[in-house]
Amino acid sequence: MNDARISIVGGGISGLSTAIALQRIGMQAEVYEKEKKILEPDTGIILSGNAIRAFYIMGLGSKLRECGLDADGCLLKSDSGKTIAEFDYHAPSHIPNYLFIHRSELHRILADALLPGSFHLDKHMIDFKTDESMTLFFEDGTLVESDCLISCDGAASQVRKKLFPDSSLVYSGFSCWRGILEDPPMKVEAYTETWGPRGRFGIAPLTDNQVFWYALKKSSTENSDMQEWSPIDLLFNYFYYHEPIQEILENTPPDHIIYDNLYELKPLTPHHTGKILLLGDSAHASMPNIGQGASQAAEDAVYLAKWIRTEETIDKAFSQYETHRQERMKLIKEEMKLYGLAARIDFPGLCSLRNKLLQMTPSSYHNARLRNVVEIEGDMDSLYLE
């Protein structure tokens, strides 16, 4: 199959990771991204252990860790600052559970790992046609012939909409703010996430003496006025949460904050049809719990490469891949279900009860759940794409 021409639409984390994994097994993979530039403005990103393992398989784990900060532990706190749970699973492979890195740096490392000339910017695919081969049509009037198409064009995927018109994104009921604080007046060394009646607030250290933070808050409508909130509005919302949350919000410039509504994709089966496969958020967009959005995209990439290397045809590889990924996504969903439901609680009395129950839960329970998420199954040595 090494002479197969594979076109990947979308040049984000999913698309670049997929191309890298496929190129490492000798496949002809080309990436087409509609934007002229990527990722403006910058923000941080948290990768969990399964993504770090996947990037090691791609040969990029050490490079990513050199350019970011890593940790094994995450402290879950109440709004008063009391620790209510701790995730600190220690892997036998000594691969950390979390990596904190600038999104622009992650993207640069991935783009640099591609074969020269295989990443095409300002290439907006507007249609595709399937005959004996795939034909991709671009806004600039050009077309590309390919043997198969991999859709990595995100949660609002145009490829998915054409293939599965009934598929739809659902507003999650949450708004999200992400920001970077440069030269903070406080020292941040640990990764923490705070749960309280006024929303969730996560804090993680970055290189260059910077702090990455994110805030999630319930909103009854996706068109709420919260998208107009300033740092002062956020500060007022979290005014009684523990330090250094107020200090972080007070010192973050407005142009360093990004606002988004969060959406989820209704379960979609299948993820492929004929010569077209959906990967990453285009196949399974979900809430960003413990960095699983980007992490599952990295997993998608290495396991697709595994099946393409193993099977005789791409059709068989796509089928095997989908069977595996459906099972894995179901496991991730089940492991994170309790925490996802608990994180949504925003009534003060219920928050207190939740916090007490989490404090009573043995650390071994939390770490067992984390282990099932961050460890990708099987013998890792057999997966390395070298």
What top-tier CATH class of the largest domain fits best? Alpha Beta
Roughly what is the average pLDDT, rounded to an integer? 89
Task: Indicate the radius of gyration in whole angstroms.
Answer: 21 Å
Q: Numbering strands along the chain, what is their spatial order in the largest sheet?
A: 6-5-14-15-16-13-17
The name of the CATH architecture of the largest domain is: 3-Layer(bba) Sandwich
| SS strand fraction | 25-35%
- The global form is globular
Describe the protein's architecture and organization.
There is one protein chain. The model has no long low-confidence stretch (mean pLDDT 89). This protein is α/β, with parallel strands linked by helices and 386 residues long. The strands form four sheets. A seven-stranded mixed beta sheet has the order 6-5-14-15-16-13-17, sandwiched between helices. The chain has twelve helices and 19 strands. It folds into two domains: 5-168 and 265-376, 3-Layer(bba) Sandwich (FAD/NAD(P)-binding domain); 173-264, D-Amino Acid Oxidase, Chain A, domain 2 (2-Layer Sandwich), CATH 3.30.9. α6 runs antiparallel to α7 (245-251). The two termini are 17 Å apart.
